[in-house]
User: Which sequence fits this backbone?
């Protein structure tokens, strides 16, 4: 039987058009992420976690706490680097849009969670209420950290549709923070952390 020569369909050319250029962008981005500064950051993270674990075993909790915090900061910076790389090397506007949607729904999850914790705190009093407010504040800080990652994507966005999508998301977020601060005050559960997050957002140009 004669072997048939299978020709690529016209769709194959659509998917491979510009592929070489995209591969070069990905390689360049990976070289940036895998540079000396990133390796130093990775070493710093591993070292901080290892030393923190040792202090925890020896019950030196203050030292462990400081090192775990340092490790979290390193991890946060690594996250920012890879987020930037994902956006930079995305092969199309559609890919970038899907990625932005992923981040936006993660932020909405945090928003719904601290609203939920506030609702529960209203049903409690004394120490249990304080514990739920503390959890709320932790989630609030996590949402702030995520917004800190999203802001560069908004500022660097070249596509107007993506920029508007992120702008609307950030405006919804800060509106939620304002409402949270007002509700906490009106219910006698004022949170300095919530006020600081709101101030941080306004300082970063989120209106």
Assistant:
């Amino acid at each position: 039987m004669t072997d048939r020569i299978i020709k690529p369909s016209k769709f194959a050319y659509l998917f491979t058009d510009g592929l070489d250029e995209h591969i070069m962008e990905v390689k360049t981005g990976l070289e940036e992420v895998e540079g000396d500064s990133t390796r130093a950051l990775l070493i710093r993270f591993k070292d901080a976690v290892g030393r923190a674990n040792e202090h925890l075993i020896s019950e030196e909790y203050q030292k462990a706490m400081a090192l775990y915090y340092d490790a979290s900061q390193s991890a946060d910076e690594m996250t920012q680097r890879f987020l930037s790389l994902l956006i930079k090397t995305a092969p199309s506007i559609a890919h970038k849009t899907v990625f932005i949607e992923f981040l936006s729904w993660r932020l909405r999850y945090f928003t719904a969670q601290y609203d939920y914790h506030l609702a529960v705190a209203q049903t409690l009093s004394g120490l249990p209420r304080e514990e739920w407010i503390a959890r709320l504040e932790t989630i609030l800080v996590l949402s702030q950290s995520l917004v800190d990652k999203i802001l560069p994507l908004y500022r660097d966005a070249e596509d107007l549709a993506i920029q508007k999508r992120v702008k609307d998301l950030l405006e919804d977020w800060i509106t939620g923070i304002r409402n949270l601060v007002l509700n906490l005050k009106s219910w006698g559960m004022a949170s300095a952390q919530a006020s600081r997050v709101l101030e941080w957002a306004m300082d970063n140009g989120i209106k």
Summary: The mean pLDDT is 86. The radius of gyration is 23 Å.
